[in-house]
Amino acid sequence: MTVGTAVSTVLDRDGLDALITLLAEDGRTVIGPTVRDQAIVLAEIGSGADLPYGWGVELEAGHYRLRSRADGAAFAHSAGPQSWKTYLHPQRERQWTADLTADGDMEVREETSPPPSYAFIGVRPCDLRAIAIQDRVLGGGPHADTRYAARRRQAFVVAVECTEPGATCFCVSMGTGPAVGPGYDLALTEVVDGRGHRFLARVGSPEGEAVLARLPHVPADEETAGTARRLVEEAAARMGRTMPEVDLRELMRETLDAERWNDVTARCLTCGNCTMACPTCFCTTVEDVTDLTGEHAERWRRWESCFDVDFTHLSSGPVRASPLSRYRQWLTHKVGTWHDQFDSTGCVGCGRCIVWCPVGIDITEEAHALDAERAAASGDGEVER
Amino acid sequence: MTVLAPGAAPALPPSPYRVVGRRLETSDTATIELEPVRSGLAPFSPGQFAMVYGFGVGDIPLSVSRIEGDRLTHTIRSVGAVSSRLASLEGGASVGVRGPFGTGWDLTAAMGRDLLIVAGGLGLAPLRPLITAALTAPERYGRVNVLIGARSPGDLLYADEAERWRAADARVLVTVDRPDDTWRGDVGVVTGLLNRAEFDPGATAAFLCGPEVMMRATARDLARRGIAADRTQVSLERTMHCGTGHCGHCQLGPLLLCRDGPVVRWDHAEPLLAVREL
Ligand SMILES: Cc1cc2nc3c(=O)[nH]c(=O)nc-3n(C[C@H](O)[C@H](O)[C@H](O)COP(=O)(O)OP(=O)(O)OC[C@H]3O[C@@H](n4cnc5c(N)ncnc54)[C@H](O)[C@@H]3O)c2cc1C
Ligand code: SF4
Ligand code: SF4
Question: Would you say A10 and A198 are in contact if contact means Cβ atoms under 8 Å apart?
């Protein structure tokens, strides 16, 4: 088999199970979707039996519910409450420690605990792009985050194409799915039909090729490959949401003083849930602690949200004191200024922020409203809602 | 996967430095001098900043207020936990330093032009190494004007140095908001000094640092006097927790100020600062 060609193979459920076992035997921490606390979460899985076979989700703004699926599919659900950043860019991490020596000098040691070697099972196309975006933010630029880079380099990624978009998904608008883009080691497309339950598998890297070669698999038959392609194409036509078909970066730049910001701010609780759920949001703050002797200090970094009023704390007070300025910062950063800073969008259309917002604020609805307001102001009439 | 580019400063951890000198500048501001315990960081240029760590309390962005070989000098106003700790450190104390970070002042853009350097309060600190650099290469620039504003005579920084700048042919003008009984100089905002500065607006480069309102007022005034917005540079302050473009706090619209700033050309900064709470 050759990497990067269309050559593909088919795994059955046992083959997928064997993949998980093999990755664990190789010393990897295998993370995948599994049902816990009425949701499909990402957690360490021990075998294929932990995958959410037979579970789907019902999504709406501010709403998430599990529902059982008659077809027994494992990956026919959309993004859950967490994303892969939980593992690659953890919520809380020690960065370095410092000790005062007897002669009063400071010894600083960078965190050296070996980064875990992960295998991710079931990375959706939108989330694969989100990982690539965090690579640029944290691994790119003049100063790379070396621990992020180390975790990332070691991670083995099994992507899964989407055949069943959720009502809050808009990856087609963002150009991120439902077909998988580059960056995976193996990519699966789940097919359940009269001929059984199976996964079309494609190789994206030499590591992926080596792993696949050790699994029981058969070359892909035309029918399975064709069905997989058709399911993904159909999914693209069934997106739950869309973004306005305009240059979003320009839209954000041109609507900084729109009336709509007042409207959304009247609803937004500035709770920051959207930023925690978002797979690309990367902002952090630091905590410095000392032990009781006062001679050992540690530097920890943890996620922080641009919705916190202290986020822009200066000795003269916060820069973004009003909730309006904080919601506007979030949205304009996601789909606007992210392009200026990191040469890509900061939104992959996963819909998490819509689902996990306690008051159901919908990023796509806000973008459409801004577009409509801009069009009305410029007097060129009709825009699509 | 992008790997650490050759020559890039590592993001972590801080390098140990030792305090080798301290001088009280005003009632709440001190200058400390630091030398590396082992090897020094890459050289800093005027306008760049370091993240300076006080043991166990945290690190904050501080501009270099003098650059001499491996020795870093910072002038620090005590406004909170970390700045108070650092400003109170005496000779022999240890700190951690990361950097150099950020864009420096672009002095090459000033070649052959008159210089207009305008400082408000502590804003003189990041401008001092620029003034030194300009005065050590007088053949490259036209007339050098240094305009300084402070709250009161007691808040003036580097008073003895201003004499040396005058001796090196700089035109140094000073004003205070609140004079005391001994003050014989100018009173009022720093823009009030512009009429007495000597510069040809069509061939001038301006460098501003101070409170944002002061920089806005000064930059607008300069534009009215005919200095093109792209010839004025300002140094902006936002919250910074990493210095490496990863923490997200220092955003000003499209800019990450730890990376794309703190020194920004006025034609870029003006439309951003015009939006309230951007
Ligand atoms: C590029 C740059 C250069 C600077 N140069 C100087 C200088 O030369 N001299 C000087 O005295 N001051 C300078 N400052 C301002 C200085 O960094 C702040 O006064 C300092 O961070 C305040 O921290 P604190 O803990 O003492 O204060 P607090 O107000 O108690 O701050 C609490 C916490 O908030 C955060 N915080 C508050 N203000 C800032 C800030 N501006 N940036 C980042 N975090 C902040 C810090 O994490 C701090 O620990 C500079 C700021 C920037 C952005
Ligand atoms: S902004 Fe919302 S839809 Fe876009 S990537 Fe983040 S969570 Fe997903
Ligand atoms: S948009 Fe929703 S989730 Fe985000 S801060 Fe506002 S209320 Fe919270």
Answer: yes
User: Chain A interface, mutation test: which of B20, B62, B236, B276, most A Cβ atoms within 10 Å?
Assistant: B276
Q: Which residues of A190-203 are buried (b: 16+ CB within 10 A; e: fewer)?
A: bbbeeeebbbbbbb
Measured in Å, how far apart are chain A's first and last C-alpha atoms?
Answer: 47
Closest chain B C-alpha to A39 CA, distance in angstroms:
30
Residue B54 beta carbon below 6 angstroms from any ligand 1 atom: no
What number does CATH give the domain B15-100? 2.40.30.10
The answer to whether the CB atoms of B12 and A282 lie below 8 A apart is: no
Is pTM beyond 0.95? Reply is: no
For B156: left if phi > 0, alpha if psi spans -120 to 50, otherwise beta; the answer is beta
pLDDT digits (tens, 9 = 90+) for B193-217: 999 999 999 999 999 999 999 999 9
Distances (CA, A) of B210 to B62, B105, B123, B192, B217: 14, 14, 4, 15, 11
Which residues from chain B sit within 8 angstroms of residue A303, using beta carbons?
none
pLDDT (tens digit, 9 = 90+) per residue, B46-79? 999 999 999 999 999 999 999 999 999 999 999 9
In the stretch 310-369 of chain A, residues with CB closer than 8 A to chain B read 311-316, 319-322, 324-325, 329, 332-333, 337, 340-341
| φ, ψ (nearest 5 deg) of residue A310 | -75, -5
Residue to probe by mutation, ligand 3, list A303, A304, A307, most atoms within 8 Å of CB: A307
What 3-state DSSP class applies to B110?
helix
Q: Which CATH number applies to B108-273: 3.20.20.30, 2.30.30.240, 3.40.50.10860, 3.40.50.80?
A: 3.40.50.80
Q: For chain B, which residues make up each domain, given as ranges? A: 15-100, 108-273
ipTM: 0.91
Q: For chain B, how many residues are written?
A: 278
Report whether pLDDT(B15) > 60: yes
Burial profile A234-268: b = 16 or more Cβ within 10 angstroms, e = fewer: ebeeebbbebbebebbebbbbbbebebbeebbeeb
Query: Quick check: helix, strand or coil at residue A360?
Result: coil
- Please spell the DSSP secondary structure of B23-85, one letter per residue: EEEETTEEEEEEEESSSPPSPP-TT-EEEEEETTTEEEEEE-SEEETTEEEEEEE--SHHHHH
Among B92, B247, B253, select the one facing A337 at the smallest CB separation. B253
How many A from CA of A339 to the centre of ligand 1? 28
Q: For residue A350, how many other CB atoms are within 10 A of its CB? A: 30
Considering only CA atoms, which residue is closest to atom 45 of ligand 1? B239
